[in-house]
Design brief:
single chain; mainly beta; five-stranded antiparallel beta sheet; 6 helices; 24 strands; about 20% strand; globular; binds 2-acetamido-2-deoxy-beta-D-glucopyranose; DUF1996; WSC_carb-bd; WSC domain-containing protein
Amino acid sequence: MLPKTTYTHTLVGMACLVPQATAFFRLPCSYSAVVERADPIMDPGTVSNHLHAVMGSNAFNFTLDYPTTQMATCSTCKVIEDKSSYWVPSLFYRAQNGSFVRVQQSGGALIYYLQRTDQKDPEFDKGLIAFPEGFRMVAGDMMNRNDSNPESLAQKAVSFVCLGVNGPASPKLPKQNCPNGLRTQLIFPSCWDGHNLDSEDHKSHMAYPTGVDSGSCPSTHPKRFITIFYEVTWSVDAFKDEWYDKTKQPFVFSHGDPEGFGYHGDFLNGWEVEVLQRAIEDCTASSGVIEECSAFTFWKDEEMAGCKVLPRVNEPVDGVLAALPGCNPVQNGPEPAVLQKDCGAVTEIGDPVLPFTDLSKTLNWRYVGCAKDPAGQGRTLDGPSDDRADMTVDSCVEFCDSKGFNYAGLEYKSQCFCGNGVAQDRMPANGTTGECDYPCAGDAKQICGGYGQVSVYLRCDEGNCRNADLTKLW
Ligand SMILES: *[C@@H]1O[C@H](CO)[C@@H](O)[C@H](O)[C@H]1NC(C)=O
Ligand SMILES: *[C@@H]1O[C@H](CO)[C@@H](O)[C@H](O)[C@H]1NC(C)=O
Ligand SMILES: *[C@@H]1O[C@H](CO)[C@@H](O)[C@H](O)[C@H]1NC(C)=O
Ligand SMILES: *[C@@H]1O[C@H](CO)[C@@H](O)[C@H](O)[C@H]1NC(C)=O
């Protein structure tokens, strides 16, 4: 059946070639803006219970309202008019000795916007609507640890796909390696009570339609939003040689969930509402290709990849961890998990963790930024260079200093380059912090550039030596 909102368009446009039920657009998000125990919906103003991978705008914070979302200067998701945040629990590998290693995402996420509607919707004639300002919701139940009610719509909304292996999506984490990645999938409810932007459990203002992502809305929740659906892919193949128990898979979500029955996701609306409404009506191609939507303008890939939120919870989330961040012992179920507290995990929101080393008061060199250094296009810093297994920020700065250069740059963990300036077009895109996030070869606590990315420092005068202020991007 043709949805009302696209009816006119269909007649005027592509006749009836495309069944409108398949209309959608797919919003690509690059890597997470931050991986941190923050959750402005579930745990506003505090360090949250478990670790999240957060996609979307750099306005993300421990508390977040709509006006603040609109101050973002970049997003890891492609559409400039979307300053929303999209987050899910992180995935960890649990080693045989009980330690945990975070699984990287292969890319960020794909957020599907599906124009699903049904003639039996109570307000079918009013058409699909965009999320209003201030709207937020949660899908999934982090406490759930069983699938004993497979008829539950909320449970059907969660699924896992093992990429590179044939077979259907499964309701729990697969018991085999996924050579092309593990894809976690989550459908959000699309039926709204029409009044509440949020609710105490962050769910009951919303309901699933009869078919989870299709079918009609209940009379209690008569208004129909566009359906959102998250796909996040995890590079589980990196652990393919580290499976140790034939009866179990070794991955666990950050909330201590070893099967995935408690997988969940959060959405905090930061859309320019009228733009999303226009897209709902106009972006009805069945290809899902977002570039075909004239309603939108787009960030460049570099702007998405360089869009970071500085973490403020002073705890490691990478490397080999003795426990999952926060108080999250693995709870197998089937009974619901019990929330744990007071295990000694960090509870303070601290100062932002800066992606550079402060040498402004010791060596009188200041951090300039994370510049690009693309291969084969001439070095960003073209003076003397060095490459050492014990490279640190300090040793590179001292090297360039001793050679009489004003600029020093660290790249790809172990490389050091000196120069006398950085071309403006190599500097990070405006409003972004850039992509420098590799630990230094000689000190894993320091950052030494990245792949084709150079952490640049500049000699400065004592008393007038200030690092680039990455906390004032917006
Ligand atoms: C995030 O919130 C903290 C307080 O929790 C505040 O100090 C900080 O300025 C906020 N970050 C940004 C980028 O506004
Ligand atoms: C535990 O296992 C991890 C992953 O295999 C390994 O990196 C780590 O060194 C081990 N830790 C100890 C204390 O043996
Ligand atoms: C299964 O999970 C549901 C929802 O979390 C819970 O109410 C039920 O008690 C659980 N079943 C068992 C056998 O523990
Ligand atoms: C950033 O903005 C400044 C001032 O508007 C401009 O001079 C500079 O060229 C911009 N840089 C980039 C990389 O676009």
